[in-house]
Design goal:
Length: 316
Amino acid sequence: MLEVCNLKKHYPLRRTKLFKRPGAVKALDGVSFFIRKGESFGLVGESGCGKTTAGHTIVKLLEPTEGKIFFKGEDITTVTEDRLKRLRRELQIIFQDTAGSLNPKKTVEWILSEPLRAQRLLDRFEIERKIRESMELVGLDESFLGRYPHELSGGQKQRIGILSALILDPEMIIADEPVSALDVSIQAQILNLMNDLRQRLALTFLFISHDLNVIHFFCDRIAVMYLGEIVELADAEVLYGKPLHPYTVSLLSAIPGESKGKRIILQGDAPDPTKPPRGCPFHPRCFARIDVCTHIKPTTTEVSEGHLVNCHLYQR
Ligand code: SF4
């Protein structure tokens, strides 16, 4: 369904008197993966690792600096306005801040009708009917159509956010931290709803989250990101059963119930992305580093079918 090849998004820094060659923030630095039809693929990592930039670049909210994006075999790295409009019908995003993405001055019905009006595929009566019939998909009834966002709970806002992404009948959804702003009790309801919709509508998902429990619940395969790069990628059960990269091991060690050994506390914060460390970018925080890690960057190794690791410990 989707293939991303060596995707990069760099933000050049301003030249100043002090910094004649200021460089760039490498928010994404050579990310490659594919997602099969009907699959739910997870991107996980700490805040600032590049996972949201990846999602926004794929859905064409950001232009990539380098690399290629293929959707159903078609190169969509750069598209015309007309193709972008059609792409919006096939590839949709659910935002992290749903409350902020719903127009506070408009009713739920207006919010849901907006994407349908923009596409000009249905007349007014067909739009009204589609919206009324779609409400049951997210467990809400027609009485919500006349309400404004401030009259909805956090969970109801998220249901409307999900429905506004589904209203054009897309084939693929990019879900960017879709439950991180919700109470834990509501998170489970929304995740169950999304899982249900995934099966019912045969949707493909790119699911972005910093929460390893949420990612484990929702995803078939998972990529772990650090400083704009994928450091490990595997089937969910392989990754959680036998994590290999020291960063993945330390992340999983912090989850109650998932940890197979003692908790590993990461040393320090993630490095300044404008000055990533030489060698392996993770080496200043790595409990397993060896001499070579400080000056040579590891490359990706496939340690078993579909299990990719970017670490000197597994290089052949
Ligand atoms: Fe740690 Fe070295 Fe592997 Fe990087 S390459 S994760 S520093 S062991």
